[in-house]
What does this fold into?
Amino acid sequence: MLMANGLKLLLEMWGFDVTLAHDGLAAVAAIRDVQPRAALVDLLMPRLDGLEVARRVRADARARAVFLVAMTGLAGPSDRSLIDSSGFDAHLVKPIDTQALRALLPAG
It folds into this structure.
């Protein structure tokens, strides 16, 4: 939760409106309801992991256009393949490089 709160503050400093969800089910609901241009999804969330969040978002016509960014400590080739096949548009390895994150996000 500390990382999420820190990222929220950083994104708000960059001018983004941020909605936090601390578990996978809440993340799917927030993405569906808010319909953000981009969503940062940690793969290790309670109740529903990030891979399933991506699958559900991609299956929902109301939310499938959201730019999904996976955030994880998994960095191997097989991990990357699994992340890509789940529907993510981008993948950032923790600790998150803030310059790489900013470059991925659409202009606020």
About this structure: The radius of gyration is 13 Å. The chain has a mean pLDDT of 92. Residues 24-104 form a domain with the Rossmann fold fold (CATH 3.40.50.2300). Residues 7 and 98 are 9 Å apart (CA to CA).
